[in-house]
Design a protein that fits this description.
Rossmann fold, single chain, 7-stranded mixed sheet, 280 residues, alpha/beta, Helicase, Ruva Protein, domain 3, 11 helices
Length: 280
C-alpha cells in the first residue's frame, strides 16, 4: 500500500468522517461536507465512497482539506466542482458558487416554453461559471447561446465548462448588462442582489467574489441598470428569467414594470420569491 495512505481497516474511514463532521459545526451539512471531501481526496464519487466505505483508506490529503473547511473555505472551492441542474461545473475562487435556488430560473423557462421546441438562442447575463447557460443548453440540445461576464476569472472558468459541457454551442464573452446587441429567445440572469452591509454567511463573505454579491445600499443597483436594457434583448415570444433575493419580489419587479415589461414572480422550492419572469 502506498505510503501516503492510512491502511484500510474496519471503521477507519467512518471514524475519519465522524471526526471531520464534528469540526464543521458551523455548516448546515457537516456530514455531507466530510463525505464530499473524503471522496474528493480519494478521487471517487460520493456514491462510490458510501457503497465501499468499509474498504476505503484515508489519504493524507484529507487532513488538509478538513483543516481548510474548518476555516470556512467553501466545499466547492476545495473540490473544484459543483453539481447544478443536470450538469457538473468546474468552479474556483473568483467565481460565484452556483446554488440550487438558481435552478428556479431553469424551471421557469421550461414552464414558459412548455412542450414545444424550446428556445433556439439563449443569453446568460453575468454568466459566472456558466451554470445557467450550460444547464439550459443541456436542457435544450438544439439551442446555442452566449454567456457574458465582466470578470476575467469567471470567463476563464466558464469557457472551460463550455468546452466540456456544450462544445461548439456556447460562446463566452467579456461584456455587461447591455448584452450583444441581438435579441434572444431566453435570457437568464443572476445579478448581484445583496445589500451592502447585509449579513451573509462567513464562508460567502470571506471567500466568494464581492462583485458578484453586493449591489448597493438596497441590493437593487444592478436591477436598475438591467431593467431599461432588457426589452430590446428579448425576442418575440421570448422570456427573461432574472434571479432576485427573497425579499425583493415587489421592489425588483417594480423596476422592470416601470420599463414597460410584464413581470410575474416565481417562488423557489422553499416558498421564497426567487425569479422574475419577464416578457415584453
Amino acid at each position: 500500500m502506498a505510503d501516503h495512505l492510512v491502511p484500510a481497516g474496519v471503521g477507519v474511514a467512518r471514524a475519519a468522517l465522524t471526526a471531520a463532521a464534528a469540526r464543521f459545526g458551523f455548516s448546515e451539512t457537516p456530514r455531507l461536507d466530510a463525505e464530499l471531501l473524503l471522496a474528493h481526496a480519494l478521487g471517487i464519487s460520493r456514491e462510490r465512497l458510501l457503497l465501499t466505505l468499509g474498504d476505503q483508506p484515508v489519504p493524507a490529503t484529507f487532513a488538509d482539506l478538513v483543516a481548510r473547511r474548518e476555516r470556512h473555505e467553501p466545499i466547492a472551492y476545495l473540490t473544484g466542482s459543483r453539481a447544478f441542474w443536470t450538469i457538473d461545473l468546474d468552479v474556483g475562487p473568483g467565481v460565484l458558487i452556483p446554488r440550487p435556488d438558481s435552478e428556479t430560473l431553469i424551471e421557469a423557462a421550461i414552464d414558459h416554453f412548455g412542450a414545444g421546441p424550446g428556445p433556439g438562442t439563449i443569453l446568460d447575463l453575468g454568466t459566472g461559471s456558466g451554470a445557467l447557460l450550460l444547464a439550459a443548453l443541456d436542457q435544450w440540445p438544439g439551442a446555442s447561446g452566449v454567456g457574458i461576464d465582466a470578470s476575467p476569472q469567471a470567463l476563464a472558468i466558464a469557457r472551460r465548462n463550455a468546452d466540456r459541457i456544450a462544445p461548439g454551442r456556447a460562446e463566452i464573452r467579456l461584456g455587461d448588462w447591455a448584452g450583444t446587441g441581438a435579441a434572444f429567445d431566453l435570457i437568464l440572469c443572476n445579478p448581484p442582489y445583496v445589500a451592502t452591509g447585509e449579513a451573509v454567511p462567513d464562508e460567502v463573505a470571506r471567500w466568494e467574489p464581492q462583485s458578484a454579491l453586493y449591489a448597493g445600499r438596497d441590493g437593487l443597483d444592478d436591477y436598475r441598470a438591467i431593467a431599461p436594457l432588457l426589452a430590446s434583448q428579448i425576442a418575440p415570444g421570448g422570456v427573461a428569467c432574472v434571479e432576485i433575493g427573497a425579499s425583493q419580489g415587489q421592489s425588483a419587479a417594480a423596476l422592470f414594470m416601470a420599463a414597460g415589461l410584464n413581470v410575474t414572480v416565481r417562488r423557489d422550492l422553499g416558498g421564497r420569491d426567487r425569479c422574475l419572469v419577464v416578457t415584453s
